[in-house]
Design goal:
With about 350 residues, the protein is an alpha/beta fold. It has ten helices and 15 strands.
Length: about 350
């Protein structure tokens, strides 16, 4: 086991969707000795940090220099949770992705391993590429074929860590389709829930891709969707468990796009109107019709919490964050009681 209260936590990507939610969950555990690292640039994600409590902030471009020149300035680091990355699946600058996602991760991980510091990092379910099945986090890395540069940059670090024997010493997390509050800065990379809610409020309807396969009706394509609040509970459980290797973090259940979007209409209190539009030609060869995380390894570490229904997660997100324009605050409950089926 690993005590998250022992020493300062270095949290990269701490203003992003998963990172700021990790900070929220740490605050709920009474942990505030956190060094947040991120690149705020011209985005509005600084707003995610305003209500949250942490010890210090450092720009991501200054972190590796500080690690090399004055590591004591960071304080007594006990845990590194490395979530910082360019997460855009449409980013075309492969050099940028390799520097930001691959080289940066190598340097931070190497520094932590040399000092015996607990290191947990974000990989991605995108590393599975075009596989359409119950995706297994014990699958040989050499068998995976990522479909975009982002996924490849993540996969390459997994492979590097495996070759160096680091996966026996560190914990990598393959996040599936994560959605929830504090994703407003992501633009077109926001979840379908966020974009659909915007469409409904503007036009009264949402648009989904038609199916090009006869075995899937329109809207019946399936994904493993997971609310960010549940994703960070799994993340912090793994960090505290002391277990190492690669772990899927998902719901372990494949649900349809219709399952995802219908609760949005209910949360908004408006009639259901869904339009199906042709899938763009450039997406057809890369589109996955079914993904589902196998989470047996996660469960084997002692994670026993039930994953609430998808409709409750959507309701919590829409009613308590999107509609009032709120970000996560330390006193927010894991699920607000406006959701329908949480006891």
């Amino acid at each position: 086991m690993h005590d998250l209260h022992n020493g300062r936590i270095l949290l990269t990507g701490g203003a992003g969707l998963i990172g700021s939610t990790v900070l929220w969950a740490l605050n709920r555990r009474g942990i505030e000795d956190v060094l947040v690292v991120d690149r705020l640039d011209e985005s509005e994600k600084w707003k995610h940090l305003v209500p949250l409590r942490f010890a210090d902030y450092l720009d991501a471009d200054d972190l590796t220099e500080t690690l090399e020149c004055d590591p004591e300035a960071l304080g007594p680091i006990g845990t590194v949770i490395h979530l910082g990355a360019c997460s855009s699946t449409t980013e075309c600058d492969a050099d940028f992705l390799m520097r930001n996602n691959y080289e940066y991760s190598k340097r931070i991980a190497g520094w932590a391993i040399e000092r015996g510091i607990r290191f947990v990092y974000a990989s991605s379910a995108a590393t599975y590429g075009s596989l359409e099945t119950t995706l297994d986090d014990e699958a040989p890395l050499a068998d995976l074929r990522p479909l975009n540069a982002y996924a490849y940059s993540k996969h390459l670090f997994d492979c590097y860590a495996s070759r160096r024997g680091w996966l026996d010493l560190i914990c990598g997390i393959k996040y599936f389709n994560i959605f929830g509050p504090n994703e407003d800065h992501k633009g077109e990379m926001r979840s379908v829930v966020a974009k659909a809610c915007e469409q409904i409020r503007e036009n009264g309807s949402i648009r989904l891709f038609k199916s090009d396969r006869p075995e899937y009706a329109d809207g019946e394509q399936r994904r493993d969707f997971l609310y960010v609040k549940d994703a960070v509970e799994m993340t912090l459980h793994l960090a505290a468990s002391g277990r190492n290797g690669l772990f899927n973090v998902g719901a372990g259940k494949a649900q349809t796009w219709l399952d995802l979007v219908r609760p949005i209409f209910s949360a908004l209190g408006v009639p259901e109107r869904i339009e199906f539009v042709p899938m763009p030609e450039h997406l057809r060869a890369k589109y996955q019709y079914f993904t589902c995380a196998r989470i047996d390894r996660l469960r084997s570490t002692g994670y026993t919490a039930e994953i609430p229904p998808l409709a409750d997660a959507v309701a919590d997100y829409v009613r308590n964050y999107i509609l009032p324009g709120r970000v996560l605050e330390p006193n927010d409950a894991p699920y607000a009681r406006t959701a329908t089926t949480i006891a």
